[in-house]
Structures are given as C-alpha cells and as structure tokens.
C-alpha cells in the first residue's frame, strides 16, 4: 500500500478541507479519469482497492496513473481508553482530496471499457466522483 | 483555422462580487491586451466562447473581438481559467495579434490507426506528447496534426520530426527528437507470493523519521549519550496520574 518512505514528524494536525482543488484538477497524462466531487480523506487501503479494480481492466492493455498520494498520518486512540494522555498512535495514511481533484487517469482503453473501469473503481471510494475525458474525445 | 466573432463590452467594475454578478448574467470577465494598444478589461458573451472549449484545437481559433465603443480587433485565446468542479469558464485572456507577424502556438497532435505492434505483437501503445509548439502566421495555424501510427512496431517511436510540417509556413519550436507515441512491450505484473503478501499486511511498517542534527550527535561521541536518560525519565512521569486513578 502507498505510504511515505521518510517523514519529518510522525503525527500531524488534522487541518481543514475547504475550497476546491485548483491544482491537479485537469487530465495531465491519460485520455480519461476519475474526478472527486467531494472533499475527503482517502485512505491508502481505499486507493489500493481502486487501483486493483482498475488494473483488472488494464490487462487488455492500457496504462494507469494514480494522481493522489496518502502522505498524512491518521492517528487513533486504542479502544476503551480514557481521554487525555496525548495524541493516539498513527494507524494508517490518508490523502487529502478536495472537490475537483483528479484521482486516477487511464489511457489505452476504449471509451466503454474505461468508463466501466472508472465506475468499478468509484465504488471503492468513499466520495461521489465523475468520469471525465479530454475535450473532443468520445 | 476557423475565425469566430466575439462580442463584448468594456468592463468598468472590478472585484469578485461584480465578477460573480457578471457571470450569473451569462458573461465572462476577461482582458484584451498585447500589440500596440493598452490593456482593456472586457465582459464577453459566454455562449460565444463556449465552442472554443468543445474541441482541443478550439483554443487556437482566431477571434474577431468586437467591443462596444472600440474598433474590431484580431486576437487569440492566450489563457483561461475554469472552475475545477463544474468546468464553467471564469476568466479569459485575449492577446491581440497582427496578421503579418509570426506567433508561437501549441497545436494538438492526434494519432490514427491501430499500431501493428499492438495488433500483431501484443504491445502497449502509449501517447507521450499531445501537443507540439510551432511558429507560424495567425492565418496558417493548423487545427491539428493527424499522424498515422498503424505501422508502429514494438520499440519504434514517432517523433515531432516526423510531423508533416509545411516549411514555408511553419517552423517547429519544440524539440524535434521528442517522442509523440511509441509501442512498448507489455509489463508483466509480479505475482506476490500469498505468504509474503500476508506478512506485509500484518506488519504495517512505519516510515523512517528524518532526524535533526544527526551529524552533531555523531561528532560529540560520548556526550551524545547524555540525552538518553532524559528520554527514559519521560515514561516514568507519565505513569504518575495512573496511580492516582487507582486510589479512586
């Protein structure tokens, strides 16, 4: 699963998820892709599940790009623990996704197959998404 | 290249509130600049601009900009901003151009046909570059370049130097050796043994921490060992409140 190789600090503050994704909101590599329509923390497990779903369609030939990376540690306190005593331990990694962000890109598949692949991958994600293509593409 | 007539008005209002009102009225704020004239803030009809964004080559269309109170000017779309979520047009930059002055434009490159390397050899066709930068007169801007890739085999590439450019009208600005598309051998996915996969899932490895002042500690030698007891004291302090809980 995706996670950073090196980090400066083990734990991070949560931050705010406001606004839209002004960066990474256009197709840069492929012919089509999956765009986030909501803000969310996408975990590395969810990214992996979507990647596996997409890669099954790519066996017929094609290429995939993952445009998000889970670089934010998600901490959790153990069960039945009293409040206090500091922040919990890092549990997994998340990618901060804002509305408009391109999550995955595909190339080399026909329009119907790539749409189907993106639909399957979208079911692995906790947010509403949109299938996007380049202007003029079928 | 197609020529489109765009009508608009000179814009006096500034700021986000005025621009929001403008957009809700079906207009797009923009600016007309370059050439010999001064920059003019304008409000353009969104419906007239929409066709430019329906095709990849639409951005290179020549625009006859008719602004109320000003003379008709020839311009091209230099830059634009779209809403990342809904794709609606937010702002456009129009650059004045002269018909007799060469300009640099990015023209889309499209591929046609099924490569033989994919059909016969089972390779994977990859498009590397989708646009090429050329220098030409505004009237000579091509809509697109269509390249036939049906002859491509595995390991063969198509480069910008292979594009059918008319040397009298156009000059290639992009690097001629840049690959447009190629066919590569398919990558075989490494099958992970189930035991190894289970072990990897069971032990979630933590990333390495980037430590500060690592070199200083190494240079100090024996003195570097001093902070260690302090670290050991910390858990002892943390235990104190637990004792008080037991008393309760």
- Count of alpha/pi helices of chain A: 2
How many helical stretches of chain B? 6
Mean pLDDT of chain A: 92
How confident overall, as mean pLDDT of chain B? 80
Rg for CA atoms of chain A: 17 Å
Class by helix and strand content of chain B?
alpha+beta
Spell the H/E element sequence of chain B: EHEEHEEEEHEEEEEEHEHH
Q: Nearest-angstrom radius of gyration of chain B?
A: 31 Å
Choose one word for the global shape of chain A. Answer: elongated
Query: Structural class of the secondary structure composition of chain A?
Result: alpha+beta
Helix content of chain A: 10-25%
What is the CA–CA distance across the termini of chain B? 85 Å
Q: What does the oligomeric state look like here?
A: heterodimer
Output the strand order for the largest sheet of chain A: 4-7-2-8
**SSE series of chain A:** EEEHEEEEHE
Which parts of chain A are unreliable, with pLDDT below 50 for 5 consecutive residues or more?
none
Largest sheet of chain A: 4 strands, antiparallel
How does the major sheet of chain B shape up?
Answer: 6 strands, mixed, barrel
The largest sheet of chain B has its strands arranged as 1-3-2-6-5-4
């Amino acid at each position: 699963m995706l996670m950073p190789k090196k980090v400066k600090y083990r734990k991070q503050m949560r931050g705010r998820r406001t606004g839209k994704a002004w960066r990474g909101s256009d197709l840069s590599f492929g012919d089509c892709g999956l765009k986030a329509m909501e803000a969310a923390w996408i975990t590395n497990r969810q990214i992996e599940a979507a990647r596996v779903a997409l890669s099954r369609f790519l066996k017929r030939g094609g290429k995939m790009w993952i445009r998000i990376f889970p670089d934010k540690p998600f901490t959790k306190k153990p069960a039945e623990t009293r409040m206090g005593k500091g922040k919990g331990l890092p549990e997994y990694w998340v990618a901060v996704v804002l509305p408009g962000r391109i999550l995955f890109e595909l190339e080399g598949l026909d329009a119907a197959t790539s749409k189907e692949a993106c639909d399957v991958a979208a079911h692995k994600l906790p947010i509403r998404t949109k299938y996007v293509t380049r202007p003029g593409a079928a | 290249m197609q020529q489109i007539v765009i009508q608009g008005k000179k814009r006096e209002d500034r700021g986000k509130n005025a621009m929001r009102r403008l957009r809700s009225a079906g207009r797009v704020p923009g600016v007309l600049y370059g050439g010999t004239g001064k920059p003019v803030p304008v409000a353009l009809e969104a419906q007239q601009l929409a066709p430019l964004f329906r095709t990849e080559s639409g951005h290179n269309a020549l625009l006859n900009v008719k602004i109320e109170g000003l003379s008709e000017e020839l311009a091209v779309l230099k830059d634009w901003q779209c809403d990342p979520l809904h794709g609606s047009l937010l702002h456009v930059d129009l650059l004045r151009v002269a018909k007799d002055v060469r300009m640099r434009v990015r023209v889309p490159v499209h591929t046609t046909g099924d490569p033989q390397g994919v059909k016969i050899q089972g390779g994977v066709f990859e498009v590397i570059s989708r646009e090429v930068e050329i220098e030409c007169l505004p009237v000579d801007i091509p809509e697109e370049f269509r390249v036939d890739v049906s002859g491509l085999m595995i390991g063969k590439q198509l480069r910008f130097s292979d594009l059918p450019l008319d040397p009298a009208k156009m000059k290639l600005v992009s690097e001629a050796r840049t690959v447009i598309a190629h066919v590569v051998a398919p990558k075989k996915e490494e099958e992970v043994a189930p035991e190894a996969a289970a072990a990897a899932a069971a032990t979630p490895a933590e990333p390495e921490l980037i430590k500060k002042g690592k070199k200083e500690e190494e240079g100090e030698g024996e003195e570097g060992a001093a902070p260690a007891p302090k670290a050991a004291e910390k858990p002892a302090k943390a235990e104190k409140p637990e004792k008080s809980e037991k008393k309760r």
